[in-house]
Specification:
876 residues; alpha+beta; Immunoglobulin-like; Neutral Protease, domain 2; eight-stranded mixed β-sheet; five-stranded mixed β-sheet; binds (3S)-3,7-diaminoheptanoic acid; binds zinc ion; EC 3.4.11.2
Length: 876
């Protein structure tokens, strides 16, 4: 793979007017006749050839305006088709006939088979595995698609757009024709065919058009699609109400498949989903599963406007659709559930994943300028930081200003392939503001570090806040410019009340937001009666690291009194962190581990506070993870010491809070039949958190075993089983519970994934033996991405002590998996490999083992571009 540069972008020489595809489906030899109408773009040299992309393609036939093309007119390779001597300005038709083997397609890109169902995945560059085509997002055209297939095996024949008609064909075959009037790029093409069950509903849009809604699942799983359907209808309504966006076709379809490289795909009118994000019922899905389904259904649906109606000019603009659509799905979930709890979960995820990426060898700007393999840029930086950048625009412009900008963006660019610059300009023009400095968020990688310090002058009654920003160097970017960082703040007085609208000087201030735009800046607040406590970056208004040394008393005041619940959670976290860091240090040096009693009492006070929603209290009790502690330490990391220290802190909290936890465990069970709503889920989360703490006091095993036996839903069952497995891995009760669970759910792949995952995350080096044994288990399916992620992915991403075992065996295990999976499924292999992206932060001996494992992969001949690209960046 060659490196592609943003600076090299230029439009195609030929404009694609229409696409007409006819598929004759066959498991090993599908025939596709593709008819493309082009014309030469105005001003393009008459000698310029038409260049079409391919990937491992077999050409069967080629015609120009219905006549067979002489071999002298084109150059052919599996990766490219170049046609010369084409008309000057009048339209012409190229017919490309290819033969495809869906069954041999293990990459799951292009046309493939999963459980007997034909399905496609074309983003980013999968369409070129189906036919020779100008496979880039700025080539938009309406598509007509005809599918012909054996009727008995494939009663369902689907593609994008509206259904035109269908009927019987020859030899037991039938056909269906679809037309998508909305011009789209090839990455949004989809085809699905097979024998599937369907759940149907309708939605009436804001202009009173009736839209048919259909969710296709494997036969017998129809009942488990009800929640997804409900989430879809709520998403459609919300997009009308909040963004003014109405659905456009007369049908919207979702298909759930069991072999999929990612979560889901927003193909126009025909979303294809990993069935993990469609299927749910109380017996088999956890509250987290329900929340994920709601968020992903919404995300893919929202793409219809942010991604499909307005798409990306080139793949460098990926955040234009992904960051924006993540922002939209975050806002949707916040509106459907508890906004503060949602924000806490988002920030936890952002810090765990994106901050880690931004601080390592794979760091890149939200809008990169070069890539070797685009599939490696579907990253948490493009998605989650991209969403944060959108959120900051809303913070800076306010609700109305943001809406004006979005409306202008939709108005200006509907039907187009746009850029990040187009997006930003819409906000500038709609609000008459200059966002030039702000745009650095798209271009400069690295998490800014803001250092803050405050001084109160009791005589002058002023509070002086000094801020300084530093953006760390990242690969290819050694020097950075100061950015525009919006910091939401509050001054909390002695009595806990917030100081109302204080007078501030020193820079731009809008509502409760300080705008840090200089490298160093001093804000002075006047008429402050007593020494205030500053709560800064409330709601995580900017995705930064904040270095602000606040005393325990000050943090306790924020934790008790801030009106922003996110800030209260942040203060509790800031109270916890120094204890966890010190504990890791003491554990490493073999010293006794202690914990600040004020932190413990503040935490327990929050846990027991009936005025706070249970989900918030559960978030507070979920201390920073081992990975969070590692990130705070930054270098010379010893995961065993972090684990040992954190366990000691958890035990100290459990011992002090035993009665609080017993009370929560006994009272937090939601009444009545199971409901996945946010309030019930919050109660379950708090109760299960209490169960986790109680595992550190006498009777822990028995209590967890009983909780497992009593569980009447998957959330409680999996939580109890996790407590048993993680805290008492060698206990007979654990072995028995694991056996009961697998026997009960042996026919449910999604539940089996949980069984594998919770064993792969048992702390400690012995887990590597367990994982090796599980890879030989008859229920382990090495070709199913969900199963591989649940076992190997969970070990590498979510089990620091086992994966980083001191002898390096964890890295070797991952390396062997990566090289084994790579030839079949490069995207899956590459994704697993990113688990090693922070290897340089480990202690010297572990880092040596990690480097050796990476070099071993590097020595493998014939690595995919995906893995090769990552290895090179990680070893650089
Ligand atoms: N757009 C797809 C992701 C495609 C990934 C290609 N490697 C799902 C989404 O973000 O909605
Ligand atoms: Zn997306």
């Amino acid at each position: 793979g060659q490196i592609v540069h943003l600076a090299d972008y230029r439009p195609t020489d030929f404009v694609l007017e229409r696409v007409d595809l006819t598929f004759e489906l066959d498991p090993q030899a599908t025939r596709l006749e593709s008819r493309l109408i082009f014309h030469r773009r105005e001003g393009v040299d008459a000698s310029a050839p038409l260049v079409l992309d391919g990937d491992e393609l077999v050409l069967t036939e080629l015609r120009l305006d219905q006549n067979e093309m002489p071999a002298s007119q084109y150059d052919l390779s599996p990766d490219q088709l170049v046609i010369r001597d084409l008309p000057g300005s009048e339209p012409f038709e190229v017919t490309v006939i290819t033969t495809i083997n869906p069954e041999a397609n293990t990459q799951l890109m292009g046309l493939y088979r999963t459980n007997g169902v034909y399905c496609t995945q074309c983003e980013a560059e999968g369409f070129r595995r189906i036919t020779y085509f100008p496979d880039r997002p700025d080539v938009l055209a309406p598509y007509t698609v005809t599918i012909i297939a054996d009727k008995a095996a494939n009663p369902v024949l689907l593609s994008n757009g509206n259904f035109l008609g269908g009927g019987n064909y020859d030899e037991g075959r039938h056909f269906a024709a679809w037309f998508d009037p909305f011009p789209k790029p090839s990455y949004l093409f989809a085809l699905v065919a097979g024998d599937l069950g369907v759940v149907e509903d309708t939605f009436v849009t804001m202009s009173e058009r009736e839209v048919a809604l259909k969710i296709y699942v494997e036969h017998g799983k129809e009942d488990r699609a009800a929640y997804a359907m409900d989430a879809l209808k709520r998403s459609m309504k919300w997009d009308e109400e909040v963004f003014g966006r109405e659905y456009d076709l007369n049908i919207f379809m979702i298909v759930a498949v069991s072999d999929f490289n990612m979560g889901a795909m927003e193909n126009k009118g025909l979303n294809v989903f990993n069935d993990k994000y469609v299927l749910a019922d109380p017996e088999t899905a956890t509250d987290q599963d329900y929340a994920n389904i709601e968020a992903i259904i919404a995300h893919e649906y929202f793409h219809n406007w942010t991604g499909n109606r307005i798409t990306c000019r080139d793949w460098f603009q990926l955040c234009l659709k992904e960051g924006l659509t993540v922002y939209r799905d975050h806002e949707f979930s916040a509106d459907q559930r508890s906004r503060a709890v949602k924000r806490i979960a988002e920030v936890r995820h952002l810090k765990a994943e994106q901050f880690q990426e931004d601080g390592g060898p794979l760091a890149h700007p939200v809008r990169p300028t070069a890539y070797r393999e685009i599939n490696n840029f579907y990253t948490t930086t493009v998605y989650e930081k991209g969403s944060e950048v959108t959120r900051m625009i809303a913070t800076i412009l306010g609700k109305d200003g943001f809406k004006k900008g979005m409306d202008l963006y939709f108005e200006r660019h509907d039907g187009e392939a746009a850029t990040v610059e187009d997006f930003v300009k819409s906000f500038e023009d709609a609000n008459s503001v200059d966002l030039k400095q702000f745009s650095l968020w798209y271009h400069q990688a690295g998490t800014p570090l803001v250092t803050a310090s405050g001084i109160y002058d009791a005589v002058a009654k002023t509070f002086t806040l000094s801020l300084e920003q530093m953006i760390p160097a990242t690969p290819g970017q050694s020097t950075k410019q100061p950015m525009h960082i919006p910091l939401s703040y509050a001054l909390i007085q002695d009595n806990g009340a917030l100081l109302d609208a204080p007078k501030v000087s020193g820079g731009q201030v809008t509502a409760d937001v300080l705008h840090l735009t200089e490298k160093a800046q001093v804000f002075v607040f006047e008429n402050v009666p007593t020494r205030p406590v500053l709560s800064l970056n409330r709601g995580f208004s900017a995705p930064i690291n904040l270095d602000f040394k606040q005393s325990t008393e000050d943090l306790v005041r924020i934790a008790r009194h801030d009106t922003d619940l996110f800030a209260r959670w942040q203060a509790l976290t800031d109270l916890a962190l120094p204890n966890l860091l010190q504990a890791a240090k003491d554990a490493r040096e073999g010293k006794a581990i202690t914990c600040n009693p004020v932190f413990i009492s503040t935490l327990l006070e929050a846990a027991a506070d009936e005025a706070l929603e249970p989900a918030f209290r559960a978030q507070a009790l979920a201390l920073p993870s081992e990975a969070d502690i590692a990130r705070e330490l930054g270098s010379n990391i010893d995961p065993d010491a972090i684990h040992k220290g954190r366990q000691a802190i958890l035990k100290a909290i459990a011992e002090s809070g035993q009665s609080v936890f017993e009370n929560l465990f006994n009272t937090m069970k939601p009444e009545g039949a199971f409901s996945p709503d946010a309030a019930s889920a919050g109660k379950r989360a708090l109760r299960n958190s209490a169960l986790g703490y109680l595992a550190y006091v006498t009777g822990g095993t028995e209590r967890a075993a009983k909780a497992f036996a009593d569980a009447d839903n998957m959330t409680d069952m999996v939580q109890a089983l996790t407590v048993l497995a993680h805290r008492f891995p060698e206990d007979a009760a654990t072995a028995e519970a694991l056996a009961t669970f697998v026997k009960r759910f042996e026919n449910n792949p999604l539940v089996l994934d949980k069984w594998f995952a919770l064993q792969a995350t048992i702390p400690g080096g012995d887990t590597l033996n367990r994982v090796n044994a599980l890879m030989e288990h008859p229920l382990y399916v090495a070709t199913n991405p969900n199963r591989v992620r649940s076992l190997v992915g969970s070990l590498a991403f979510a089990n620091p002590t086992a994966f980083n075992r001191a002898d390096g065996e964890g890295y070797r295990l991952l390396g062997a998996q990566v090289t084994q999976i790579d030839p079949r499924n490069p995207q899956l292999a590459a994704r697993l490999l990113t688990a090693m992206r922070s290897w340089r932060a480990l202690d010297a001996s572990r880092a040596d083992h990690a480097r050796a494992a990476l070099l071993e992969i590097d020595r493998t001949s014939k690595l995919s571009t995906d893995v090769r690209d990552l290895i090179e960046r990680m070893l650089k």
